[in-house]
Amino acid sequence: MSQPNRFSNGGIIDRSLPISFYFNGKQYQGYKGDTLASALIANGVSVTARSFKYHRPRGIVGLGIEEPASMVELEGDFASGNNPITIVPIQDGLRANSINCWPSVNFDFGAVTQLFAKLMPAGFYYKTFKWPNWHLFEPSIRRAAGLAGAPERPPAQCRFEARHAHTDILIVGAGAAGLMAALTAGRTGARVFLVDEGLNPGGSLLNRALEIDGAPATDWVSKVVTELDAMDNFTYLKNATAWAYREHNMIIVNERSPKDDGVLERSWRIRAGQVICATGAIERALVFANNDRPGVMMASAIQGYVNRYAVRPGKRAVMFTNNNSSYAAAADMVKAGIEIVAIVDSRASVPAEAMALVKGLNVLEGFVVTTVKGYKRVKSVTVEPRHGGASSSISCDLLGQSGGWNPTVHLFSQSRGTLKYNEDIASFEPDTPVEATLSIGAAAGLMTLQDALDTGFKAGIDTANKSGFSGVTGEVPDSRDLAYKIEPLWRVENTSSKGKAFLDIQNDVSVDDVHLALREGYTNIEHVKRYTTAGMGIDQGKVGNINIIGTVALQTGGNPQDIGITTFRSPYTPVSFGAIGGLREDTVAFPYRHTPITQWNRDRGAVIYEAGARWQRPGYFPCKGETFQDAVNREALSVRNGVGVYDGSPLGTFELKGRDVGKFLDFIYTNIMSNLKPGNGRYGLMLSDDGLILDDGVTFRVDENRWLVSTSTGNADSINQHMEKLLQTEYPNWEVKITSVTSQWNNATICGPKARQLLGRLGTNIDISPEAFKFMSFRDGRVAGMRARVVRVSFTGELSFEINVAPRDLLELWLKIMDAGKPLGIEPVGSEANHVLRVEKGFLSLGHEVDGTIDAHDLGMGWAMSKKKPDYLGKRSVALRRAGGGVRKELVGLLPINPNTAIPEGAPLTPDGRKEATEGLTTACVWSVTNNCWVALALLKNGHARHGQTVHVRLRDEIIPAKVTAPIHYDPTGEKMRS
Amino acid sequence: MLNITCPFCGSRSESEFAFGGPVGGDRIDPNNSSDAEWVEYLTVLPNPLGPVQEKWWHVRGCGEWLTIWRDTHTHKILEAPHVPT
After folding, report:
1. Out of A246, A725, A883, whose CB is closest to B65?
2. Would you say residue B70 lies in a domain?
3. A907 and which of A52, A746, A922, B3 could share a cystine (Cβ 3.0–4.6 Å)?
4. Using CB atoms, which residue from A246, A689, A728 is nearest to B1?
């Protein structure tokens, strides 16, 4: 029979819309408005999960986000793991499965771990499974305990989105308190945002049979929402969780079902003038042996399933409580036809107003439940007087439990407001706020419906006034609710029963585990949490954490206020990564940068790499049938023997203007720049003030007060920041203005012995003879009919002309170069060939030779460290680092003894190749087209003194001997580039 | 996610800025200080629980650097922002 546990009427579900869904491969029916939990309860499904560590059978415990026991993974296009079973709405085609069990949730091999439970208390992995090597055990342990896997693809059809908003008042929670505040504030005209995690407004009013102004509370909810929806100044986000409270009243909200087509989830970052936390309260469990059996449920959850979803979680119930609220739940259960065999109340005397609701029921005052019998379903409970006495057994199939209500203070606490322990409610409530926020209703520890309405009304006035709005209208409606009275029962201390009493159901943490942590000296509540992992699951211990504090208090003789509560962190409930990112992924977040030649590179068949700062650079240009090495060799040879061309546009370039530029450059570079004559340039090193190499580049002087500073491509942005920071915060009186011209000048660089010939063929009005146009200088003029600045600078070690033109002219220049260069055998050169050429010359590459410990002297560049300048950034620190003496790694060249053996980049060098601490590291190795062998650069201890020695590269399967040389394998005097 | 008032652009979200560290002392004379003093200048920065003066760069805005006084416990920004002159 379909849905045997569904009542024939009642509930806020739409019985005209039946829905089919699958759970663990079996098909069931439910109605629109059901959650997966309510629909499964309607179908009589009891075991829905297996616990994390011990694989104990578990059922449905709660009603909403606080659910500790049952997670499911969803299949299909919107696949996701670790969804609490209580918040997944059913829809046609839903396929959900239990996790962490095999082959099925009803018969799980993992249950065998229960036999070894004594060997696996909290923290067992700190003490066991270590010898001979814990890595042997780690994979199996990780496999045995775990949650759902991650989905393999993002949703195909919908996208995630992000928005920002400002508002006068943000109200979190659309229960009685939040709605009252929204109505009151909204009527004044203030901008109000109302955010609620539920699919429908009303909060707990949807689960309880309460009255407002003599009519069902849900009627009042509809009236209020109707009036609010008509206001222009009101925005309501439903199925939207406020999950983070950040500084200065920034709240982050995850809206899970925005009305717009194609948007799966929308993330909001809302900056509010005032924030009202109307987040209600969450019921906590009680702690007794086997309190995790399927059929043990939160009392308010049973009430919700009965009232809201019209399902019957059991036929024969016992209620176990320490406070008044469970009596209203019991009354609703009786009205729906569930038999309540007994109410077990740990209080010695139950208040009269509570007793009045359950006339005729068997109430055991001053009693506790000591254990639950039954494995896959509750069969009976054992009760005895709280302070000792004879025990008896009561058979039942449902146990409703309530340890009291905790104000939901998570967001308030994230805002750094302080909390205090209130004995009247035996829980923590907000104390002093830090941000412009206030808490109302149960979130403030005021538990009745009238409290919620009163505080909501007052908060609406307060926040509207603070936002500059007045003229409040309306009044607080009337309601009736049971007074909230409680006597804390942190755990059942009667020792007559055996069996685990869980404090954290999700992470399988029991009272014994917390006692173990305390015995081992982990007495701070934060240590108790981490040592036992209690409160660290997906539910973040929402139904158990306060009991842990109470348990610690009982064991140590402390009190909850002093023991304190662990820090609340966002997210309040899990948030998908997609929602956090929104559209900001891949090229939307971090666009690729192109030059005018990018398309030409693609058409030519270049293999495109991403170079520093997201530039799309060609790695190499393979011809048909060529291997990688063939192409790189061909390109490198063209530069060494003829002429090649590459696009140098991505290099960072900055124009510096002002009277003090020379002084500034002398300060940030290691060498002297201020004595450059206009038209000339110099290669320099930039250090940070603690002596590490920041960047290298060539700087040219344009005229008296104008300079061009170039940086490496990947560092353009950070060097810009470095220079701006110095000028604006440390030396604001120096007259230096920086303009980034990286995008203003693009260049095609022609290099090789035939470069001058090619430049002549392009046509230029510049005198390009070697005497007139020397190395490290530049000329302005026209090239190939276009306005150009030609710079003689070389990164390849060959004669080289960097032809700078406006970006709109670059493609035309490039095509003319390729055309004029054809008879000279011109090739376009990619970054791989450039790498070969610079390694042959021993030129510095920041990503390779500079590792954060190397200084200029180690690189053999002591000539760049000016001795004349009394001070520059990094000078003192370099000297200080070297002053201690000690062995330094120094840059050398390596030639493998076998010329056809390549050394992998990064390979370590060890003494004689022995398995010992390394004495060096290979920074680069390339096939040298000019030497016809593999050549490398390396950082080697005492390298400068070891030229000619044989050293050894040690790999896992091979030792490679190599000869140490000077770090240069081609044209040591540099005459080619100066020609 | 602080709300920072840039003196040129007005009240803006922290995401428009880059943090530039606390305001330490002026750079001491490297030629007139001991090794210990030099290392302390480089590595020891103000880190109070309470008000601290710190630098922010409005990098995704006007590009100017400014300093604010922020309370490291409550995140309150204690004074109008200051632009070094």
Report:
1. A725
2. yes
3. A922
4. A246
Please tell me the pTM assigned to this model.
0.87
Q: What is the pLDDT of residue A606?
A: 96
| Helix intervals (H) in A188-324 | 217-229, 299-307
**In CATH, what number is assigned to the domain containing residue B46?**
3.30.2270.10
Residues of A in contact with B84 (CB under 8 A): 728-729, 732
Query: CB pairs below 8 Å between A and B: how many?
Result: 63
**With 60 as the cut, is the pLDDT of residue B85 above it?**
no
Chain B's closest residue to A414, CA to CA, is B74
Q: Tell me, yes or no, whether B30 lies in a domain.
A: no
Within 13 Å of residue A804, how many CA atoms lie on the same side as its CB?
Answer: 18
Residue (of A367, A376, A362) closest to A288 by Cα position: A367
* Structural domain of B19: 3-24+35-82
Q: Is residue B29 part of a domain?
A: no
Quick check: bond before A103 cis, omega within 30? yes
Closest CA to A48 of A18, A76, A28, A33: A28
CA distance to partner chain B, nearest, from residue A921 (Å): 29
Query: Which of A248, A721, A730 faces B27 most closely, judged by CB atoms?
Result: A730
pLDDT, averaged across chain A? 94
pLDDT of residue A112: 78
Half-sphere exposure of A10 (CA within 13 A, CB side): 22
Whose CA is closest to A65, among A174, A198, A170?
A198
pLDDT tens sequence across A332-386: 999 999 999 999 999 999 999 999 999 999 999 999 999 999 999 999 999 999 9
Q: What is the dihedral of CA A769, A773, A778, A779, to 10 degrees?
A: -60
| Chain B neighbors of A730, CB-CB under 8 A | 26-27
A interface with B, Cβ–Cβ below 8 Å: 164, 246-248, 250, 269, 271, 416, 434, 689-690, 721, 724-725, 728-730, 732, 870-871, 875-877, 880, 883
Domain-located, residue B68:
yes
The tally of domains found in chain B comes to 1
Q: What are residue B4's DSSP bridge partners?
A: B12
Q: Do B1 and A248 touch (CB under 8 A)?
A: yes
Q: Choose from A245, A415, A435, A728 for mutation: most chain B CBs within 10 A.
A: A728
φ, ψ at A264 (rounded to 5°): -75, -50
Cβ of B35 and A880 within 8 Å? yes
Q: Nearest CB to A732: which of B38, B75, B85?
A: B85
Query: Complex ipTM, two decimals?
Result: 0.93
CA distance A691 to A668: 11
Residue A429's CB is within 10 A of a number of other CB atoms, namely 21
Return the structure tokens found at A905. 């980049």
Block residue for tokens 């240009």: A621
Probe site for chain B from A725, A727, A878 (most B CB atoms < 10 A)? A725
Is the distance from CB of B10 to CB of B80 less than 8 angstroms? Answer: no
A contact test, residue of B6, B62, B65, B72 with most A CBs within 10 A: B65
| DSSP output for A667-689 | HHBSS--TTPPTTBEEEEEEE-T
* Mean pLDDT per 10-residue section of chain A, whose length is 979 residues: 90 95 96 97 96 92 97 87 93 91 80 78 80 83 75 81 95 98 97 96 96 96 98 96 97 88 91 98 98 98 98 98 98 97 98 96 97 96 94 97 98 96 98 96 98 98 96 91 96 86 96 96 95 94 96 95 94 90 80 92 94 85 95 97 95 95 97 96 94 93 96 87 93 95 94 97 96 96 97 95 97 98 96 96 88 90 94 95 91 96 96 94 96 96 96 95 96 91
The residue among A247, A252, A721 with the most chain B CBs within 10 A of its CB, best to mutate, is A247
Q: What's the pLDDT at A213?
A: 96
Q: How far apart are CA A49 and CA A68, in angstroms?
A: 11
